[in-house]
Every structure is written in structure tokens, then in C-alpha cells.
């Protein structure tokens, strides 16, 4: 692990300005600075954007629902219980409050192979805009476009009558600041891979009066993989390894009316250690490998709560909060009501600690299904003024060729 010098600090700043300043505002970012060790600091956080409008309208829940092609993101074990062939496309103008021309696209498909299971594939693209490059002396080096891209395949199969297992793998390509040279170092696109392990268990359906009740329990450990690197100087960042688990309870009142209640718990499992180096005024950072972070990512962490400037921290004027594993989770819940499997309304709530990202919002959505075509819409209502996610809308189109 190498100490930070001025050239490496510039390279680190250039890629983090694009990834962190634009994205970390809504992904497990701290209200302040952590000391000694922190769980923030992941790269390619676009992998955590909830892709489909249906689940987004339910407060970003879906690990125990996972009953369409978007199960590839939420829980690939849910593919095992799906028949036929389906395509889904989601589009969103991202962070509209910034008016920066960012957009997000998610294409997914699944196909059932009788006697084996259901296979799926996806393509994720986040456009981060066009930027003017500058060197360490602030001289222009030309314009470049920044984007993140992931492509992968998933598979789900039934292993017991009520238990399904799933897995997935994706290639990740992060093109944030390509070809920018500072000193002897040249930034380049980062490339890595990630894989998922998931399970879905259904409690045997039962009757409550005239209502048929189903309870599903979901688990998905996603984005396990090696770190990603943007230059040849030996500095690498972890990808956002993530554990999601939760439940869904469905009430089939009759042939016309169905209500589903969902709740997800979400924990990013990374651990980044920051310590002073031998070089005055610099520090070093090192992230645990993903297989170690599965365990170390549950540790408590200390974050700066107030007066978090560098000067205040060095002067001992900052105050800190210690967050346990539960404090570092996001909690989301939602509901979906279907009338005759033709029209749906949805709503949800999303919460994250004010010391650990500070995202809190309501979501609303709707959906229609007709023959082989489906369409979904979702909207975020931020509970905080000037929140970057405010007024974010997603639109999804589904084509189900065999129902």
C-alpha cells in the first residue's frame, strides 16, 4: 500500500469527484468523516441503483418478491419460479435536480428451460456526463465522457418444493476519467467482476378466513468480487458488496383483489481502513478483500457528526457518533395492490441513518398489464428540501412472451 502524494491525490480526486460527488450523495455516504476505519469508500456504486419501477414504487423493496425478470437484481433465486420468456427495459433521467444530463438504463431478460431452471441476463448503463480534463497544473487536457457499464448472467433453480437458489455473475466496466495523465500516472477505465448468491423460501400457503396468505423470505449477497483500479499506482477500491434480506406477505382476497406487503433490510459489506503514513500530511487507505469484508463489514464504525472540516478534526473540535451494524443498514417497506392482475398502485418508505447517508423518502408508483405488455412508473418524494433524489422518476416496459 502506497502513501498518498500530490500526483496520486489528484488522480484519486478526479475519479472520486465523478463517482463520489455525483453518486455517493445517495449511497452509504457519511455525513462526516470516519476515523481509523470506515465502511464507506466503494467504487462503482451504480451497481446499487434499484433498477425497476415496480420495486422502486414500493420503497425500493424486492428481495422476497422477485417474480419477474428484474429478479436478476433483487434476488436471482426468484428466477427459478418463473416460466416463459420476458424482456424488461427501465429508463430514468438520473438526479434531475442537478439538471446535468445524467441518465440510467437497465435492460434485462429471462428464459425458462424446463427441467433445468431459468436463465437471465442484464445490461446496466449509467451516463455520468461530459467533463473537461485538467492536469495537476490546471491546464486543460481535453473533454471526455464518463459512464459505468455492467453486463451479466444469472440462474435460478428449485432445490426443494419451497426453496429456490440462485446465482449471478457480472462484468463491470467503469470509464470515469480515461486518458487523464498526472505526472507519470495515467488514469484508465476500471474493470472487475462480481458475483451473487441468493435464496428464496416460501412458507406453505395457508387460509385466513376466506383469504389465501403467502409468506416469502428472501436473501441475496451481491457483488462479491475483487477491487477495481483506475491507475497503475497500486490503489484500488472495493466494489459495493451488499447483503439484502427481507420478506413479502401476500393476501389473495379473491380473484379480483390482491395485496402484497414488503420489507427489505440492506447492508453494504465493505471495510476501508485509513491510517497515517510515514509521509507528513498524508495518509494511506486499504480495503479488506471481499471475502474478509463479509465479516468485518458488520463492525461498528465511528463517523464525524458535527464540525467535520479538516481543520476542526485536526484541532480536536469535531464530535463523533459510533454506529453499530443496524445503524449502517437501510430499511425500506412498501405495498402493492392489484386489481384483476390488470392495474396496480404502489407506495413505500425508505430510511437511512442521518449519520450514514441520510436518505429518507416516500415512493409512489403504478403499473398496468395487458396481454403480453406491462408498464410501470415510480416517483420519489424526498422528505428533505433540495435532496438530489427528489422528483426522480423511473419508467419500465415489460414484454412477457409466454404467460
Keywords:
403 residues; 14-stranded antiparallel beta barrel; 21 strands; three-stranded antiparallel beta sheet; 5 helices; disordered N terminus; 9% helix; globular; mainly beta; Porin
What do you see in this structure?
By secondary structure, the protein is mainly beta. It has a single domain, classed as monomeric porin ompg (Porin). The protein is built from five helices and 21 strands. It has helices spanning 6-23, 53-56, 71-74, 290-296, 310-314, and strands spanning 37-38, 85-93, 103-113, 117-134, 140-158, 163-175, 181-182, 185-186, 190-208, 211-224, 242-252, 257-268, 272-276, 283-287, 301-306, 319-323, 330-339, 343-352, 360-370, 373-382, 393-400. The strands form four sheets. Strands 2-3-4-5-6-9-10-11-12-17-18-19-20-21 form a 14-stranded antiparallel beta barrel. Strands 1-13-14 form a three-stranded antiparallel sheet, with no helix packed on it. The model is unreliable at 1-39 (pLDDT under 50).
Amino acid at each position: 500500500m502506497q502513501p498518498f502524494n500530490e500526483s496520486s491525490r489528484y488522480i484519486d480526486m478526479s475519479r472520486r469527484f465523478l463517482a463520489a460527488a455525483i453518486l455517493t450523495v445517495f449511497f452509504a455516504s457519511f455525513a462526516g468523516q470516519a476515523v481509523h476505519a470506515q465502511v464507506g469508500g466503494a467504487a462503482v456504486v451504480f451497481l446499487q441503483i434499484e433498477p425497476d419501477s415496480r420495486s422502486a414504487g414500493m420503497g425500493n423493496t424486492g428481495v422476497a418478491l422477485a417474480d419477474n425478470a428484474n429478479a436478476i437484481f433483487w434476488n436471482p433465486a426468484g428466477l427459478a419460479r418463473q416460466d416463459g420468456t420476458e424482456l424488461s427495459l427501465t429508463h430514468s433521467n438520473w438526479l434531475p435536480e442537478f439538471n446535468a444530463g445524467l441518465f440510467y438504463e437497465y435492460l434485462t431478460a429471462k428464459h425458462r428451460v424446463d427441467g433445468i431452471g431459468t436463465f437471465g441476463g442484464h445490461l446496466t448503463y449509467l451516463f455520468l456526463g461530459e467533463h473537461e480534463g485538467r492536469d495537476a497544473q490546471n491546464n486543460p487536457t481535453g473533454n471526455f465522457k464518463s459512464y459505468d457499464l455492467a453486463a451479466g448472467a444469472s440462474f435460478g433453480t428449485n432445490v426443494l418444493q419451497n426453496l429456490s437458489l440462485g446465482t449471478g455473475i457480472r462484468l463491470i466496466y467503469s470509464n470515469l476519467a480515461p486518458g487523464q495523465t498526472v505526472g507519470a500516472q495515467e488514469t484508465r477505465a476500471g474493470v472487475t467482476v462480481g458475483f451473487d448468491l441468493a435464496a428464496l423460501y416460501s412458507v406453505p400457503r395457508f387460509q385466513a378466513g376466506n383469504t389465501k396468505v403467502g409468506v416469502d423470505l428472501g436473501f441475496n449477497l451481491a457483488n462479491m468480487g475483487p477491487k477495481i483500479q483506475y491507475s497503475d499506482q497500486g490503489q484500488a477500491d472495493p466494489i459495493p458488496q451488499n447483503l439484502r434480506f427481507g420478506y413479502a406477505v401476500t393476501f389473495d382476497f379473491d380473484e379480483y383483489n390482491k395485496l402484497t406487503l414488503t420489507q427489505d433490510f440492506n447492508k453494504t459489506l465493505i471495510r476501508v481502513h485509513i491510517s497515517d503514513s510515514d509521509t507528513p500530511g498524508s495518509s494511506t487507505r486499504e480495503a479488506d478483500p471481499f471475502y474478509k469484508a463479509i465479516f468485518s463489514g458488520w463492525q461498528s464504525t465511528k463517523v464525524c457528526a458535527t464540525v467535520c472540516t479538516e481543520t476542526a478534526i485536526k484541532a480536536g473540535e469535531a464530535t463523533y457518533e459510533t454506529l453499530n451494524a443496524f445503524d449502517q443498514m437501510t430499511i425500506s417497506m412498501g405495498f402493492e395492490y392489484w386489481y384483476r392482475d390488470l392495474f396496480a398502485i404502489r407506495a413505500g418508505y425508505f430510511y437511512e441513518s442521518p449519520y450514514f447517508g441520510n436518505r429518507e423518502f416516500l415512493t409512489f408508483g403504478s403499473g398496468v398489464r395487458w396481454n403480453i405488455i406491462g408498464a410501470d412508473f415510480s416517483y420519489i418524494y424526498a422528505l428533505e428540501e433540495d435532496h438530489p433524489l427528489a422528483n426522480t422518476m423511473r419508467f419500465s416496459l415489460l414484454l412477457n412472451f409466454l404467460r
